[in-house]
Amino acid sequence: MLVGGGCCSLGLALLLSVVTADRLDQRSAGADAFSTSAIGHRGLVALLERLKVPVVVSRHRSDAKAGDRGLLVLCEPRGPAAGEPGDAPKLEGLAELAARRTLVVLPKWHGEPSPERPQWIADAQLVDPEQVRQVAAAALPESARDPLTVVRLPAEKSVHLAPSPDDELLEAPQPSLPGTQLLGGSDALEPVLAGPEGILLARLRGPDDRVRWILSDPDLLSNHGLGRPGNAVLAVQILEHARADGAVVIDETMHGHRRIETVWQELFHFPLVLAIAQALFAVVILLWAGVGRFGGLVAPPPPLPPGKRYLIDHTAELLRQGRHARVALSRYLGAALAEAGRALHAPAG
């Protein structure tokens, strides 16, 4: 019974793993690394993995995972809106994070999930520039916040970006960003990629060799933007330029995907929870099998009963099965006659 129950539970586990294979990953339609929508960044994660660039989608202690050699990426934190603080206050403590290299990607779009396909968006609206400015200001020290501005170019206007001569992005391709969103107004920001209208990629150096980059337009990294000419190449070049030789750690705690990774939590998540369920099922079967037993076990009978009768019966049964009864009786008769002759002192023959 125990073996049968184990086989049944194993078969159920395999069936569940096949049925739920597409539901294991976190799903989203927002501007995060789990999203396959137009404004999401799952395509960027897939691109980095294909290029063998170490990338981690982090849901806990992202700064510690980036460490001294990696790059912590904060993609499109939510700006203040409708009386809510959004994610900007979380950026206030950015200077205390353990990561020495940080890339903050400013928000641009807000999407409404599609009722028919929740992983897509039905519509997208531009985020208020003041919200974008507040997120950018929260990621900067107070000395670099004023006068910080956000500039959005018309969709039909193209922008020509020139890299800083002190950087390694001199061969960077021109991106395709309709309605480009740029930063301007702050002299504390060091332009890395900039045009006459503003800065696309800015850098701010801090104490202890800490470096913070600000990317003003997320369309360069989003799913719908990676397919445009030059965007994917420039996005990879920026990430490779910003990181040292560590991993690209994309933080998802700011989008509400925080999950503390502990051994006990992992034991009760798929697929490890199936092993726990199978072990519990085996314990229940063992307990159920022992419920009807009271007192000591009944001693089994001995393999060979005592006395000669068993040997005689066993020998007779062997003779019967071997069909040697006629020969045995003939020999037995001869032996009996010889014994009688000896007892009576009969003459020979």
Topology:
Elements: H1 2-19, H2 42-50, E1 55-58, H3 62-66, E2 71-75, H4 88-91, E3 101-105, E4 109-113, E5 121-126, H5 129-138, E6 149-152, E7 162-163, E8 181-184, E9 190-195, E10 198-205, E11 211-215, H6 223-226, H7 231-242, E12 248-251, H8 263-267, H9 272-289, H10 309-321, H11 325-344
Parallel strand pairs: 1-12, 2-3, 2-12, 3-11
Antiparallel strand pairs: 4-5, 6-8, 7-9, 9-10, 10-11
Helix pairs in contact: 1-9
Task: Provide an overview of this structure.
By secondary structure, the protein is of the alpha/beta class. Helix content is 34%, strand content 17%. The protein is built from 11 helices and 12 strands. It has helices spanning 2-19, 42-50, 62-66, 88-91, 129-138, 223-226, 231-242, 263-267, 272-289, 309-321, 325-344, and strands at residues 55-58, 71-75, 101-105, 109-113, 121-126, 149-152, 162-163, 181-184, 190-195, 198-205, 211-215, 248-251. An 8-stranded mixed sheet has the order 1-12-2-3-11-10-9-7. Helix 1 (2-19) runs antiparallel to helix 9 (272-289). The protein is rod-shaped. The relative contact order is 0.15.
Name the features.
349 residues, alpha/beta, rod-shaped
Proportion of residues in helical segments: 25-40%
The value of Rg in angstroms is 40 Å
Let me know the largest β-sheet: 8 strands, mixed
Q: State the distance separating the first and last CA atoms.
A: 71 Å
Strand content: 15-25%
Low-pLDDT regions: 17-24
Numbering strands along the chain, what is their spatial order in the largest sheet? 1-12-2-3-11-10-9-7
